[in-house]
Each structure stands twice: as structure tokens, then as C-alpha cells.
Amino acid sequence: MVDDRPYAYPSATWRLIVDGEADGAANMAVDQAILEAVIERASPPTLRLYAWSPPCLSLGRNQPLSDVDSTACRAAGVDVVRRPTGGRSILHTDELTYSVALLQADPRSEGGIVEGYRRLSEGLLAGLHTMEVPAVQAVGKRKPEAELTAVCFETPADYEITVAGRKLVGSAQWRARGGVLQHGSLPLRGDLTRIVQFLALSDDERKAQQNSLCLQAITLEEALGVAPSFKQVAQALAAGFGKVLNLTLVPGELTHRERAQAADLRSQVYAATEWTTRR
Fold first, then answer.
1. What is the mean pLDDT of the chain?
2. How far apart are CA 87 and CA 33, in angstroms?
3. Sequence spans of domains, the chain
4. Which of 60, 188, 218, 243 could form a disulfide with 166 if both were Cys (CB 3.0 to 4.6 A apart)?
């Protein structure tokens, strides 16, 4: 296991937001609104923990919409949203999602995207260790781009979190205007192969990806042998981030400005056809 002792980061105070459920467009809009406020120094760096309702299939920023079986999504009441970050498809249901918004100048995000993953993933790892999850950071396991499928959880990228070689947390990062947004999905329970129902695959491809996901991905319930509550996991992750990144996390809420900007971003970007269908 990775040493959970703090790195030599200066002490800092961040805001902690623990949200309830929201739809996919709203969740992505809030993450971006927080990032914009952090970039403009109108809000402190923020750790946000949240959930989704209804279930939502999210696509990476540049992932083709043709990967989605839109008819199956509509029939099942599954939303489709495009993230501001990269990566591949994730079906958000029965999970806890984390997001971190901070400045690139912060020592906790020094280096490039991969190094940023390493630093911030230490907070996730420490939180999971407090729950006695035998999690580690994946290193050198990323497949070549040509071999990647439409499913995020089929293979871990460098420094993503795994248990017994199976991916537990899928994360993605976006850097813009001196700010960093990293968010990721931690499945708490349920069947991770459900995602293949909502992707544009042949029957043979669905079967192959179901088999692959059974071997390559894992839920927190399977890793622990029990199903922890959202509240338990949120408390553990917050403690892990605080410990490893040398943070004081102060519970807070969105500002009036962030709420207004999130509402605009939801209607004008994340719920808009032009964004969802972009190539």
C-alpha cells in the first residue's frame, strides 16, 4: 500500500460540499461553475462529493456520440451528458462522485495531468484505506489509444485506483485558464456491466465487454464484502483528502454566484444539443 502520511504540502483551507442527487447536466454545470469561481479567486479550492438521479451515461469531452445507443437510453430513462473532462463512457448510478477544483499553481496539482492524478489520487487512496479497502494506484497499465473501448472502467489509467488489479475509481481531469478540475466515479454497488446496454454495440461486442468488465472493474461493495452508505464513503474520502493533502476542509455550500452560473451552464451548455452532439 501507499504510505498515507502527508506530503510536504503547506497547510491550506478548502471548502467541502456534500451534495445530494442531481441530473447529469446539473452536476457537470456545478463542477464547472465551481472551477470558474476558483479561477477568479471568488471561491476557495473545493472538494465536492455528490450523486446522480436519474441514472446518467456521461461521455468524455471528445468522445463521439455515436458510441451511445440513444434509443436504449431513452427507453430506460437514462440521461446522456458530455463531461468537460476527457475519458470514456461511465454509467453514473449507485455511486459517489468526487470533484476537486483548484489552481494549477497549487503544489497539489504540480506537473502535468498524469502527475496531478498521482497527487490527488493519494487523497482518494487514503480515504479508502480508512475503510480498510486494499486499494492501490495503477501504474503503467494504460492501453494504447487504438485499443481503448468506449467504456471508462474497462482499463485503468496511470495512478487511478484499483483493487486486486480491477479498477475501482475512474477519474478525468480538465485544465483551463490556470485552473484544474478533476472528478471521478466511485461505484458503491450494483452491476457494472449495465453500461453495455446503453452503448452502440453488436450483440457479440456487448458480450465481450460484459465479460471484460467483470474481470477489469469492481464496486466498493465487492471490494469490502458489504455495501457502505454514501455518507460513510463521503466522510472517509474527506478525511483522506484532508490527511494526505494537509487540508482543513470547511463544510460549505455553493455561493449565489455559483448557483446562478451553474443554472446558465446547465441550460446553455450541458443540457444543450449543440454540446452533447459536438465532435
1. 91
2. 20
3. 12-273
4. 218
Give backbone dihedrals phi and psi of 102, rounded to 5 degrees, phi first.
-155, 180
3-state per-residue secondary structure call for the chain: CCCCCCCCCCCEEEEEEEEEEECHHHHHHHHHHHHHHHHCCCCCCEEEEEEECCCEEEECCCCCHHHECHHHHHHHCCEEEECCCCCCEEEECCEEEEEEEEECCCHHHCCCHHHHHHHHHHHHHHHHHHCCCCEEECCCCCCCHHHCCCEHHHCCCCCCEEECCEEEEEEEEEEECCEEEEEEEEECCCCHHHHHHHECCCHHHHHHHHHHHHHHECCHHHHHCCCCCHHHHHHHHHHHHHHHCCEEEEECCCCHHHHHHHHHHHHHHHCCHHHHCCC
CA distance 269 to 265: 5
In this structure, the chain runs to a length of 279
Q: Write down the pTM of the prediction.
A: 0.91
Provide the CATH number for the domain formed by 12-273 in this structure: 3.30.930.10
- Using the predicted structure, report yes or no on whether residue 264 has a pLDDT greater than 60: yes
CA distance 168 to 222: 10
Q: Model confidence over 195-251: pLDDT tens digits? A: 999 999 999 999 999 999 999 999 999 999 999 999 999 999 999 999 999 999 999
Least confident segment among 36-50, 157-171, 194-208, 253-267 = 157-171
pLDDT tens per residue, range 58-87: 999 999 999 999 999 999 999 999 999 998
The order of strands in the sheet holding 166-176 is: 135-137, 161-163, 166-176, 179-187, 95-103, 46-52, 12-22, 247-251
Query: pLDDT-derived band of residue 266, with 50, 70 and 90 as boundaries?
Result: very high
Catalytic site residue 73?
A: no
